[in-house]
Design brief:
alpha/beta, UDP N-Acetylglucosamine Acyltransferase, domain 1, 7-stranded mixed beta sheet, 2 helices, 26% strand, transmembrane helix, Hexapeptide_acetyltransf, Colanic acid biosynthesis acetyltransferase WcaF, transferase, transmembrane
């Protein structure tokens, strides 16, 4: 097994916006998103759109939500994003219409190559298809697609694509037997 050598790590991440834009977003995120104040969802939606996110109508965004890069976020109509959801969207995150991302779910588009001494960064997009539910404290890994009308049960660790009309459960998440 290779040994990682973090002193050699160099990020290859294209941040997708200028440092100035990113710093401005950090301030807005701290004031309007992370704090547990009950700002109306329309305020959060407006800020996301201002910073380049595509956000549909009827979207509910609760307090404590942490989004890395709004310019890499695409949200359909009538989506609910619960308290303390974290989106480490180093790559695109697409949440289609009529989806629910519940409290403390973590959508993570980035990881590292443990088999390389340089600990190379790897990013892959995440897609949550129409009518799906990522329940509380579920983890969705880079490159995963959650098929339409599917559910990731609370606490599940979703490392692979979820077929349409499927409920997955566990660590690693597997289809729930009836």
């Amino acid at each position: 097994m290779n040994q990682i050598e973090l002193h050699n790590y160099r990020s290859n991440l294209d941040r997708g916006a200028s440092r100035f834009t990113e710093y401005c977003w950090l301030i807005i995120r701290a004031v309007f998103f992370i704090v547990p104040l009950p700002f109306p969802s329309c305020v959060r939606v407006a800020w996301l759109r201002f910073f380049g996110a595509t956000v549909g109508n009827g979207v509910v965004i609760r307090s404590g939500v942490w989004i890395a890069f709004p310019w890499r976020l695409f949200v359909g109509d009538h989506v609910w994003i619960g308290e303390q959801v974290m989106m480490l969207n180093l790559d695109e995150v697409v949440v289609e219409t009529n989806c629910c991302i519940s409290q403390r779910a973590f959508l993570c588009t980035g990881s590292h190559r443990f088999d390389r001494p340089g600990f190379d960064l790897v990013t892959k997009s995440i897609e949550i298809k129409e009518g799906s539910w990522v329940a509380a404290q579920a983890f969705v890994a880079p490159g995963v697609t959650i098929g339409p009308n599917s559910m990731c049960v609370a606490g599940s660790v979703v490392l692979k694509d979820v077929p349409p009309n499927t409920t997955v459960i566990g660590n690693p998440a597997r289809p729930k037997s009836s």
